[in-house]
Write a structure and sequence with these properties.
The protein has 98 residues and is an alpha+beta fold. It has one domain. A four-stranded antiparallel sheet has the order 2-1-4-3, with no helix packed on it. The termini are far apart.
C-alpha cells in the first residue's frame, strides 16, 4: 500500500441486528478475521436489515472494506483525539444541584 493508494477487499461477514428493550445494536463480524484500522471504510452489501421489536436478526452478507492510504491513516490517528473531544461536555462549576 502506497502513500496515496487504496486497496479494496471483499469479505464475508455476519450481521447481527437487535431491537430489544435490553439492547438496540447492530454488529458486523468479519468471518475471515479481517481487521478494520483507523481511516478504513466498511460497507455491507444488500438491503437493509429490519428487526421487529423484541427480536435479534442475524444474516450472512458480503462486506466491502476500502483500506485507507498511509496518509489518510496518519491523518485519522492525528485528528481522532480532537474529534472525540467534541463529543465531551465539561463543567467546572462549584455549584452542586441534586
Amino acid at each position: 500500500m502506497g502513500l496515496l493508494t487504496k486497496e479494496i477487499e471483499r469479505v464475508p461477514c455476519t450481521v447481527e441486528v437487535s431491537h430489544c428493550f435490553e439492547s438496540l445494536h447492530a454488529h458486523v463480524r468479519f468471518d475471515d478475521g479481517s481487521v478494520v484500522y483507523p481511516g478504513d471504510e466498511v460497507k455491507v452489501q444488500g438491503p437493509e436489515i429490519m428487526a421487529p421489536f423484541g427480536e435479534v436478526v442475524t444474516e450472512q452478507r458480503q462486506a466491502t472494506i476500502v483500506r485507507a492510504s498511509a496518509l489518510e491513516r496518519l491523518w485519522t490517528r492525528w485528528t481522532g483525539d480532537f474529534e472525540v473531544m467534541e463529543l465531551c461536555e465539561f463543567s467546572f462549576s462549584e455549584e452542586v444541584t441534586l
